[in-house]
Amino acid sequence: MIIALLEDDSDQSDLLSAWLEDAGNKCVVFNSGKAITKSLLGESYDLLILDWLVPDMNGLEVLEWVRENLDWHIPVLFITQRDAEEDVVQALQGGADDYMAKPVKRAEMLARIQSISRRSQGSSSSEDNLEYPPYTLQRSTRSLKLNGEAIEVTRKEFELTLFLFRNAGRILSRGYILETVWGRSAEVNTRTVDTHISRLRRKLSISPENGWRLSSIYQHGYRLEKSENA
After folding, report:
1. In what order do the strands lie in the sheet with 212-217?
2. How far apart are CA 127 and CA 115, in angstroms?
């Protein structure tokens, strides 16, 4: 997972980011509310971990901004010193997916993150045959069909197609696509993403006539979504 961590205490951010990266995740640290909201305008993350007491905008204000401005439900975990019952209730009612009071334990934090990830991905994460009419994807054979007719795709093209459909409706930055599908740093030229997206549009005949639209989002990336003509 690519995780954005909002924490202004350097000792805490170093500890939490080390735990997250040791578990195989990538962690990007922000020390103010405005810094993380600015990043969210152009970058994509799988999970937000928010402290409550941070400069500029507190964690609850960041949560409110996220739910009002992002077009999909990005999972949010609070890790904060505030442990009063009313604080927990306020955060959960505001749209947080889970809440932990400091000090946190490494194994429990990672287990809660895994639970949040499973809930956000849904049951399709373990299914072999996935239906996104008129498209059918079979994960075990990496095969793809349109209206029952096979479409020849490379392994990477299949992985990108699966990634796009499983994140349908969500704006995905080029850097996020590159890191998640190719496992490369976003600092590498992201032109390969544009090339593969263009190729998939043609191969899969992604169009309103087939019920889907793959749009380029200015200064951000791409979004696959159901067409109103579907």
Report:
1. 172-173, 221-226, 212-217
2. 18
Kind and range of the H or E run holding 1: none
What's the CA gap between 202 and 53, in Å, rounded?
49
Write the pLDDT tens digit of every residue in 1-55: 999 999 999 999 999 999 999 999 999 999 999 999 999 988 999 999 999 999 9
| 127: Cα within 13 Å, side-chain hemisphere | 12
Cβ partners under 8 Å of residue 146, min gap 6:
134, 135, 204, 205, 210
SS3 53: coil
DSSP annotation of 57: S
Mean pLDDT, rounded, for 45-70: 95
* Domains identified in the chain and CATH numbers: 2-121 (3.40.50.2300), 125-226 (1.10.10.10)
